[in-house]
Amino acid sequence: MFAKPAVIHCAALSRSPVCEADPALARLQNVEVTGHLAELAADGRFVFFSTDLVFDGLRGNYRESDPPNPRLVYAETKVVAEQLVALHPRHLIVRTSLNYGFSDTGNRSFNEEIVQAWRAGRTLRLFTDEFRCPIAAPETARAVLDLLERDATGCVHVAGTERLSRWEIGRLIAARHPALSPRLEPSSVRDYSGPPRPPDVSLDCSRAAALLGRPLPRFSAWLDHNEPVR
Question: 183 and 118 in contact (C-beta within 8 Å)?
Answer without folding.
Answer: yes
